[in-house]
């Protein structure tokens, strides 16, 4: 391995591979690839390179592997743990997959779709829909995140309850290994027991093992009817009871169950233009519930109605608005989907993305909020998310009027409090966002030595020169 | 590493760990662990060792790893590819998990169950049922196969259509690594993105990476009603049309769709006591269809009835028997479940366990049967299995009256014909049974060099001394 190629060598070599116009170096051009959208991470790259094919990706990695240049793969740059932005050394190359944007194939009969890594999630949803099918991955960033990044982070989102995580939607992968070898594992079978299931390693590996360049994905029958309701409840315990009621009556037809606190609604109404409160008066907590039917609109509505009726009778629901139209259903979901974004407008926000066994959610919320507000008086917990999966985004906004930086300086302290409670409840410190740079130090604290050791062995086996997203995750 | 400990050393060391009575060496005692039930593999072990805890497993592996003794892990000895029986060298130690048979925990609220590797699948089904829940893994050998083996082979079975493979049912694992370290990865979360998903490597690894000693499993709401029907169809193409009809109307309520040829029914009726033909006259092909409802018996029946009515009208179904009782439904399933076993009584059978994209099943069956009977006149193809998953057990029974050994000598030749067609249709040579010894040579033929290389890197990283089930899979 030659040590330290100069930036000039890096740029000229990359230019020879992808063409000069696709190697960016000026601060103006590279900035969009180097700033994380919540302003938590900012880096300075040696270059941003924009390959257009798996072969170009392979050539880039061969060069990097031979010369020891670090590669930071990037999809839509919507990641939440800093894995996709370069560090400040000026020595890392950001490899964006944005030009690998072909949907290579849609197989209606087999209900599969093959997309390149740079396809925006929403485009995949659309392509599936045009084929009369359904791709269930759905999350706030779907208009800009790219499927390669979704897979590299095993994205969760609002469809997990009924359809599973991204992992469950992937049938096969094409991956460029650290040494530039291309592995074509684009299978489309539901059953294939021929050796270790290698794709599983790359799913959720955050760019540390290779570069995902394409994927074959599972599509599903499109629901024929959906019913959405925005419901007010007294507290998380009641929300849990309500969730159980819906689970029992709707079974796998329950395709969404999200929990939101009043504060989140306030933030959205205040900062997101065109939104309005679905209910007339404020309530402490809300559930957004979605039921889908494979058979008819009527069946979904009926199931929603009868379940709601029983819930009102049992006094689990304080007030509720069933969506009267598709447009209204979309409005309700819009409130939920913008709840991450709007927090920025309220100053600093200390983030957690935790999961606990579903039944423990009320206890977790009670204990975490008490502990956090005791430690930081005036801090405003804004826990929201996927109650049905046991996954809560336990975010804490700064006290009104406090200094942003001063508040954010307490990040680790607040993390420690929240993650301590998560640990006691056998939960996870990263339910869906991953580790990246944000939780790298935490990882070694929460994992056993043997688990970290096994991870390192895999890393060394796949990327012996350590060029793939170093300093992220492991 | 000391070379070649004597059998005496092996036996005395193992005895010190598990007690003398749990180290078997006499041919009478070891035989049940060394014969594969279809008589395809028979081996001679240095010993069969029966540890009672993960710690004992760890001590055995430490010794094996230091001395280079090969370990063959075994569950219920129902595997179909020879991975679980020792070779004929007399130097391998069979490590049976049969004494690790505790169900450590059933969490009704969280819908999870933690079982040790040696628990028989049926026991897990029962424990789930007693908690008012449901464990969907279901296969012919469920009365004797053990959950550790199910996981090590990523077993499929008849529940895959609605619930996925064993992989999809596992939340966490406890594994003893080759060097005797115990990894406690018994998580119970639906979402956990903290590093590489290590458990995925062990699922389907056929004992080549470590010994699975316990697992946390997902349970599901118990279906409240089931409707089963035994339907006659003209050919696989019509069966596929019928499958699509049921998929469309029942969606995820379609929990079973199996294809069987007349020959299979004949074999069952001839060799399995107490079975009878569900229909009055014979037909060329049959579908066993199951619909489950999370809400009621009535809903399942109604859905079955209306779909069947439409199918009869469209002349897709020639004749049909909806099960009138739970007992009759069980009878229908019994026919399907014994279809593997009874083939033994008809002489030699050359096996394939293949998958192709679902839409390609009719073409596959047509081409395979033409090619096989041309090569071996009089051979009797008996293709049956999970049509909805694209997974067919393409078995071929010997011609009536032919010599068993002579027929079986053509195993590789017939394999080559069938797998060639599978390859042309982008299928898999092992959909659910795995590789083991049976398909080890095939594996390197159907996989790319880079994929085999990646698998070897993982093997070396986890089992550098190569003591874990050597000669199987890789």
From TrEMBL, chains A, B:
FAD-binding PCMH-type domain ranges (all copies): 41-222
Gene3D superfamilies: 3.30.465.10, 3.30.70.2190, 3.30.70.2740, Uridine Diphospho-n-acetylenolpyruvylglucosamine Reductase, domain 2 (3.30.43.10), Vanillyl-alcohol Oxidase, Chain A, domain 4 (1.10.45.10)
Record carries keyword Flavoprotein: yes
PROSITE patterns: FAD_PCMH (PS51387)
Keywords: FAD, Flavoprotein
InterPro entries named among the record's database cross-references: FAD-bd_oxidored_4_C, FAD-bd_PCMH, FAD-bd_PCMH-like_sf, FAD-bd_PCMH_sub1, FAD-bd_PCMH_sub2, FAD-linked_Oxase-like_C, FAD-oxidored/transferase_4, Oxid_FAD_bind_N
Top-rank lineage group of the source organism: Bacteria
Family per similarity comment: Belongs to the FAD-binding oxidoreductase/transferase type 4 family.
Stated name of the protein: FAD/FMN-containing dehydrogenase
Annotated source species: Rhodopseudomonas julia
Upper classification of the organism: Bacteria, Pseudomonadati, Pseudomonadota, Alphaproteobacteria, Hyphomicrobiales
């Amino acid at each position: 391995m030659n040590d330290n190629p100069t930036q000039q060598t890096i740029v000229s070599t990359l230019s020879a591979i992808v063409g000069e116009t696709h190697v960016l170096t000026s601060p103006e051009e590279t900035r969009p690839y180097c700033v994380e959208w919540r302003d938590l991470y900012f880096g300075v790259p040696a270059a941003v390179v924009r390959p257009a094919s798996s072969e170009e990706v392979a050539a880039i990695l061969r060069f990097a592997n031979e010369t020891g240049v670090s590669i930071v793969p990037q999809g839509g740059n919507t990641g939440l743990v800093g894995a996709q932005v370069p560090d400040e050394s000026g020595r890392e190359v950001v490899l964006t997959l944005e030009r690998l944007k072909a949907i290579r194939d849609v197989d209606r009969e087999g209900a599969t779709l093959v997309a390149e890594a740079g396809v925006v999630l929403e485009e995949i949803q659309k392509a599936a829909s045009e084929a009369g099918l359904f791709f269930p991955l759905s999350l706030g960033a779907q208009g800009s995140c790219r499927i390669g990044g979704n897979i590299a982070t095993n994205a969760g989102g609002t469809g997990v309850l009924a359809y599973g995580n991204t992992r469950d939607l992937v049938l096969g992968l094409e991956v460029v290994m650290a040494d530039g070898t291309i592995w074509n594992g684009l299978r489309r079978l539901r059953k294939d027991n021929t050796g270790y299931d290698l794709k599983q390693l790359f799913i959720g590996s955050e760019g540390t093992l290779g570069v995902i360049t394409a994927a074959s994905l599972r599509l599903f029958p499109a629901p024929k009817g959906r019913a959405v309701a925005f419901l007010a409840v007294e507290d998380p315990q009641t929300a849990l009871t309500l969730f159980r009621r819906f689970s029992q009556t709707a079974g796998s037809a329950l395709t969404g169950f999200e929990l939101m606190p009043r504060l989140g609604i306030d933030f959205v109404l205040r900062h997101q233009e065109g939104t309005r409160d679905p209910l007339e008066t404020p309530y402490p907590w809300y559930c957004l519930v979605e039921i889908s039917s494979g058979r008819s609109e009527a069946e979904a509505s009926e199931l929603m109605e009868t379940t709601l009726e029983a819930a009102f009778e049992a006094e689990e629901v304080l007030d509720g608005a069933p969506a009267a139209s598709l447009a209204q259903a979309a409005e309700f979901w819009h409130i939920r989907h913008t709840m991450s974004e709007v927090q920025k407008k309220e100053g600093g926000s200390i983030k957690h993305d935790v999961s606990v066994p579903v039944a423990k959610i009320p206890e977790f919320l009670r204990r975490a909020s008490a502990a956090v507000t005791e430690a930081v008086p005036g801090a405003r917990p804004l826990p929201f998310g996927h109650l049905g999966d046991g996954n809560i985004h336990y975010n804490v906004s700064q006290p009104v009027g406090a200094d942003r930086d001063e508040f954010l300086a307490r990040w680790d302290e607040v993390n420690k409090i929240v993650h301590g409670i998560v640990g006691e409840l056998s939960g996870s410190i990263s339910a869906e966002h991953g580790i990246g740079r944000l939780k790298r130090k935490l990882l070694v604290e929460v994992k056993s030595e043997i688990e970290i050791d096994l991870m390192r062995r895999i890393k060394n086996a796949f990327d012996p020169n350590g060029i793939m997203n170093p300093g992220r995750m492991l």
